[in-house]
Every structure is written in C-alpha cells, then in structure tokens.
C-alpha cells in the first residue's frame, strides 16, 4: 500500500505540474497573438499616429500602443531589447542603423511620407525672412539669441538642421548659438515658451504649435529629403502587426498625414 500511495502521489504531482505548465504557457501564447502591437515612432508623428490609432480601433476594434521619442533614442532602445513591433523613423540614417544591427525586417521597408524643414520664431516677434547663403543670421538673432533644434549629432531634426546650415555656409558661425533638444517636440517647446529666439523644426510640428510662426522654409537643396521609413521589427511579423502596418500606408492613414501637412508619397 505504501508503494501504491507513493506511485499515486508521484502521478498526481506530475499531472498537476503538467497542468500548471499548460496553464502558464497556453495563455502566454494567446496573449502574444492578441497583444496590441507596440509602435516606436518619431516624435513628429505623434498627432498623426494617435489619430490613425483611433481610426484603426474604430474600424477593427483592436488597440495599438505607441511610444514616441527621437528616432535615435528609439533605435537605441530597440538595440537594447525593448519590445516593439513596428519602427517608424524620421530619417533613413536611424532605420539603416536598425537594419544594420538586424533589428528590423528590411523587406518590409516603406517610405510613405515626407516633411519639410522650417524656421520658426515666437509669434509676437515673428517676421518673415528668406533663407539663402546671404541671410545674416547673427543680425537676425541679436546679441544672445539662440536657435532651438534637435541634438545635431543624433536627433534627425538636428542632423537635418546642421546639414542645412553647413550647406548654406553658416554652421561655423552658429554652432555656439544652437540649443540641442532631445526631440523636435522638445525644441518646439523652447520656442513656444520664448526660451529661444528661433527654432529649426519640421513644418508639421510648427503647424500644430501654439505661439509660434513659420518665418521661412529652408531651400530643398540645403539638406537631404526629410523622409519617414517604416519597418516591422524582426520577429514581430505577426498577423496583428502586419494588419496595422498595412493600415499605416492605406488610404485612411494617408488622409490623416495630409491633414497634418505631411508630404504623402
């Protein structure tokens, strides 16, 4: 009887363990399939993507989670293992970075939208100017005026700004006047609060800002085209991810991009 009890006890323990493992693993698999895709997106896409997420929810009943920051920060987060299903960058450099580290699926790359680079100033001090090689930036800024933009060595808007100013022959004169922020939205806020005399941002961000005005657009040939490549993250090409990725480039999403002033391709 003792041996029989021990056998039954062991058998019961094995059944219980199997049930426990099945309970732990099966729901996890279901959760992986049902979980809302997380989208890492450039800060300048915030308003458009939030609207698109709402449209998707209305159409499908399914949620999408967003994380907005500078493309450089998001690419580094992906590299560090942060969970995301889609990466939407504000420039090709950081998407190339993600691809080069085998973080994203190159075959899924699409570039559905673009933007333009503009100069803004506080609305109460704004006067239209023309940006060319003869523009006197120091006279425009005054004795101690600063220009807010993204960090010029990493944040896309800052990289575009540095390239444009270099092309125009102004970078060496202005580098000490540049205030680099962690994202285009942070740079925009500095101008909105009057903490910077001017800012170099995307036209779409300027369009939704308070207390600022666009006073000039940078010549298109002063910097590379402002483009937004999207890719699915490696290992995340699930049906849920693919469905939302397709929606991001569909007609309803394109209408949202156009509403916010993006160049739809």
Describe the secondary-structure layout.
Elements (H helix, E strand, L loop, with lengths): L1 H33 L3 E5 L3 H15 L4 E5 L1 H9 L6 E3 L3 H9 L9 E6 L1 E6 L14 H5 L5 E4 L5 H12 L3 H4 L3 E4 L2 H9 L5 E5 H6 L3 E6 L8 E7 L6 H10 L2 H9 L3 E2 L1
Parallel strand pairs: 1-2, 1-3, 6-7, 6-8
Antiparallel strand pairs: 3-10, 4-10, 4-11, 5-8, 5-9
Helix pairs in contact: 2-11, 3-4
Organism: Ancylobacter koreensis
InterPro entries: ModA (IPR005950), ModA/WtpA (IPR050682), TAT_signal (IPR006311)
Keywords: Metal-binding, Signal
Which labels suit this protein?
265 residues; alpha/beta; D-Maltodextrin-Binding Protein, domain 2; 2 domains; six-stranded mixed beta sheet; five-stranded mixed beta sheet; 46% helix
Report a brief summary of the structure.
The chain has eleven helices and eleven strands. The protein is an alpha/beta fold and 265 residues long. It has two domains: 35-114 and 227-264, 3-Layer(aba) Sandwich (D-Maltodextrin-Binding Protein, domain 2), CATH 3.40.190; 117-217, D-Maltodextrin-Binding Protein, domain 2 (3-Layer(aba) Sandwich), CATH 3.40.190.
